[in-house]
Design goal:
It is built from 18 helices and 14 strands. Strands 3-4-5-6-7 form a five-stranded mixed β-sheet, covered by helices on one side. A five-stranded mixed β-sheet has the order 9-8-12-14-13, sandwiched between helices. Helix 4 runs parallel beside helix 18. The longest helix has 25 residues. It holds the Pfam family UDG.
């Protein structure tokens, strides 16, 4: 029996070199005792594993490309039996090149299950890593640390995702199975286990606010939620301390939601007539002011959207604001309140811009379309995206708002806002996070609408997009500082 001890940190080359040497020497799978380096298996045993010279008449072993991909993933698993399993498959593939397609084969089933577990672990890492900011900004780069507890050796496998996603900041991801660090130029991997750092920062509250806003008690399925966000990750997620309370109050929240569901509005003109009968006329605002423009927009009938909406939802903010945020259209709560961004998306926006150091009271906030477009569904009103004809009709009001406010920086949130502000046919994702010059000597910055973040079902994508949105707000804050 030949004993082989490997570091076992998901390195394909390490296993491949050993397997290739033993296979060339004709060493059968049952003749090798594969071990992973540990307190019980010292690397000194490797000298017993040296294979004899390759058999002269033996043909080199070959494998299909699918095996290399499978082995690369399986080797990241934490099961010590993975080495012998792969070596056994290597031998068997010489007799049956289609072995990996046999879905009932015990070895194939076991290997594919290991690979699935590794991919799931990596997916959870991308979803549940929470960076904490540490130290001072150096040469314009911020520094972050994150802690994660993987089941398998996935740090090296998953680190390139974070390098691509967070390339503009220095970060360290520490785990009990090693660490990954990025300094803007080099991605460094270490196998030494790390101890959990005791860190927190202002984004902890931001994550709690975000999670509280996306939690829908009407769709709560506890088992499905725990399958997507297993309890073992909760202790490292700042938002997780809200979960027990949210689950406990879900039933009462559903009753409250049903009680306050918006009912379909009266026809537009009937409401105007009722308002005129019941309220004395207000003094006219001076011409050429936002107040006068808002009064004109209140009776707008330029497109059919006015027929069902409760009221026009005009922009609000200082008349001399240097920054204007433009969204898509008012939602259900905005339509009732008559103010932009007061619903869940607005609360999320408030929290993120506050964390980025942006003062909302100094912003002018408006929408590309001023009336709520929806589809009645029982007592509920389901948001519908405005079409380009409706956007163009409402461009009249947006142009006048920009003419009066004269902002230096305009933030387009979502594709509808982008279409209303430019004639370009560019995809939002192609120019997201970029600042560009537009007519009037202004700067346009493009990002997503916060309501998009509230609708994402996938945990990994949700965390990724939320982090990107937060980064967009930080870029906007730097633009405000630079132009102020």
């Amino acid at each position: 029996m030949r004993r082989v001890v490997l570091a076992g940190r998901g390195d394909l080359g390490e296993w491949r070199d050993a397997a290739r040497a033993f296979a060339a020497a004709g060493i059968m799978p049952e003749e090798i005792d594969w071990r992973e380096k540990s307190a019980e298996a010292d690397l000194s045993f490797q000298r017993d594993a040296m294979p004899p010279e390759p058999a002269a008449a033996r043909k080199p072993m070959t494998v299909p490309p699918a095996f290399i991909e499978l082995a690369e993933t399986v080797l990241c698993h934490s099961d010590p039996a993975r080495f012998s399993l792969l070596y056994r498959l290597l031998w068997r593939l010489q007799l049956d090149r289609q072995l990996l397609e046999v879905s009932s084969d015990e070895d194939v089933v076991r290997a594919r299950l290991m690979a699935k577990n590794v991919r799931r672990d990596a997916h959870k890492m991308t979803a549940f890593v929470r960076f904490k900011e540490v130290g001072a900004v150096t040469e314009g780069r911020r520094k972050f640390i994150a802690w994660f507890e993987p089941d398998h050796h996935i740090v090296g496998r998953t680190a390139p995702f974070f390098q691509r996603r967070f390339t503009d900041m220095d970060w360290l991801i520490a785990t009990p199975k090693g660490s990954a660090a990025w300094d803007g130029e080099r991605l460094t991997m270490r196998d030494e286990p790390c101890e959990k750092p005791n860190l927190s920062d202002a984004t902890d509250d931001l994550w709690r606010t975000y999670y509280a806003n996306i939690f829908n008690p009407a769709r709560l399925k506890v088992k499905a939620m725990q399958a997507e966000m297993p309890k073992k990750y909760w202790k490292n997620l700042p938002e997780a301390d809200l979960i027990p309370g949210l689950i406990a109050s879900a039933e009462s929240k559903v009753r409250e939601m049903a009680a306050r569901e918006a009912t379909q509005s009266l026809p537009f003109h009937d409401r105007l007539q009722a308002a005129a009968r019941n309220h004395p006329a207000e003094p006219e605002a001076p011409a050429g002011t936002l107040e006068a423009l808002s009064s004109e927009a209140a009776v707008c009938t330029r497109c059919p959207l006015h027929e069902k909406a409760t009221q026009t939802v005009f922009g609000e903010g200082p008349g001399d604001a240097e920054v204007m945020f433009v969204g898509e259209q008012p939602g259900d709560q905005e339509d009732i309140a008559g103010r932009p961004f007061v619903g869940p998306a607005g609360r999320l926006l408030d929290q993120v811009i506050a964390e980025a150091g942006i003062d909302r009271s100094k912003l002018y906030v408006t929408n590309a379309v001023k009336h709520f477009k929806y589809e009645p569904r029982g007592k509920r009103r389901i948001h519908q995206k405005p079409n380009m004809g409706e956007v163009k009709h409402c461009r009249w009001w947006l142009d006048l708002e920009m003419e009066l406010v004269k902002p230096k920086l305009i933030v387009a949130m979502g594709a509808t806002a982008l279409a209303a502000l430019t004639d370009a046919k560019q995809r939002l994702q192609d120019i997201r996070g970029q600042a560009m010059a537009i007519e009037g000597g202004r700067t346009l910055f493009v990002t997503v609408h916060p309501s998009y973040l509230l609708r994402i079902p996938d945990e990994r994508l949700k965390a990724e997009e939320f982090a990107r949105f937060r980064d967009d707000m930080l870029k906007i804050q730097r633009l405000i500082t630079a132009t102020g």
